[in-house]
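Why do we bother with holo predictions? Because pocket geometry can differ from the apo form. Keep that in mind while you read this record for nicotinamide-adenine-dinucleotide.
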Amino acid sequence: MTDSSLPGVPVLINGEFRQSQTTRWRDLVNPATQERIARVPMCTTDEVAAAVAAAKAAFPAWRKTPIGTRARIFLAYQQLIRENIKELAAILTREQGKTLADAEGDVFRGLEVVEHAAGIGNLQLGEVANNVANGVDTYTLLQPLGVCAGITPFNFPAMIPLWMFPMAIACGNTFVLKPSEQDPMVTMRLVELAIQAGIPKGVLNVVHGDAEAVDAICDHPDVKAISFVGSTRVGTHVYERASLAGKRVQCMMGAKNHAIVMPDAHKEQTLDALAGAAFGAAGQRCMAISVTVLVGDAQKWIPDIVERARKLRVGAGIDNLDLGPLISGAAHERVVSLIAQGAQEGAKLEIDGRDIKVAGYEKGNFVGPTVFSGVKPGMTVYDQEIFGPVLCLVNADSLEQAIEIINANPNGNGTAIFTQSGAAARRFQEDIDVGQVGINLPIPVPVPMFSFTGSRASKLGDLGPYGKQVVLFYTQTKTVIARWFDDDVSSGVNTTIRLQ
Ligand code: NAD
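The structure, written out:
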């Protein structure tokens, strides 16, 4: 049952923030306190159609808007985000749970993409080949597609929407965004700022909801391209449904990121990096390190890894300690039961975060840092994405064996190696089949002049979000082959020459 006295999160259709007409709503709950803070509508297929219609109507004028005018909106937008970053982080922490420092990082990584979108004049460039035949030139135009859509997950409610709509709109498209129904409030504040920065009516629209709204986006004939970030299960569904309907689709999906620790790694830096990457944001990062493969003598560091985990402080995001609560009661239940299963299946529970108590926040969805050693492929804690503060330690005899283990895992989102050997690092970067590769860096998220990527079950579609690849994703390449006849008879030269 939802509480109808709570403020409703509005939709944005054709420049107007308004309340949804749906009968289905979901309460938004502060994960540290269980305080109900707002309610979010589960939009209907008709509301999705209204948002797409507004985006379609806005497209002809927006695609003709000069590239410099489009760019200047994103210059204004990045400034507004910068000025409001503390407020944005506070909204995010209240609805999502991560610490204020992490929340600010979430906004900041999105802000970098907005800065990049402001440089669209240097990014949306075609190519030209002069005189490919006598009097003939060839050149390409990168033209916007029309209505594009974005479907985003709960874990980065600021950064991931900002991976999508700024670049799509800067390229001259119009957009329908469907944020996570678990924490849409910071996304809506970012959308308000985008409108304040000057994005015209209908160019950016927002609907909320679950499978009904997502399926309506996948099926709508006027949606030309979909960017999805979320779990492998839902992403595969979106990819299949929307690509069968003839759309371009890019899906960035689930993860089980492994780090390799070689015995020659710099011990203190490696242990610090692992603790931050495994337990930061309560493990709810798609780039969290959830498995560490200890090679040879690095297996002696297990007590040090456990000690680092034990020292981390768990608390409400607003108190800005090391890690906050999980997003929901359901997520808490899932993580707690996976920990129980890991112990039953024979992994050694070195530190158990299930019984953590946070004074003043007894109802919060907290799980403390948890470490299993002796983990093997085939155990549930290894095979499933836990998406909580749980680190699995796996042993390997050699770098080759460690690489084999990682390449045999279905996921290929992020990975890292810790070593002081250039030869080992190079071997790793060559042979590993994973999208983001860190060398002595635990969370190698690309900056916006590159693009996020992924291998195997972590990605469907061939172009990644943001960066150079997304300009190709959000545009149609048109190739023009042009011949101009020179009728200047006064020169006495007739240049109307045939193609060879
Ligand atoms: P999710 O797949 O449950 O939800 C993602 C989106 O899909 C949401 O907008 C949600 O409303 C929608 N959705 C949920 N169920 C649906 C259904 N049955 N049919 C249609 N749409 C549906 O993911 P989440 O729990 O919000 O986010 C966590 C997941 O996202 C993790 O698996 C994580 O690894 C992944 N993730 C991946 C990346 C990446 O770049 N690879 C980044 C962040 C998160």
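Residues 151-156, 178, 180-181, 210-211, 214, 229-231, 234, 237, 252-255, 286, 385, 387, 413, 452, 454, 458 surround nicotinamide-adenine-dinucleotide (CB under 6 Å).
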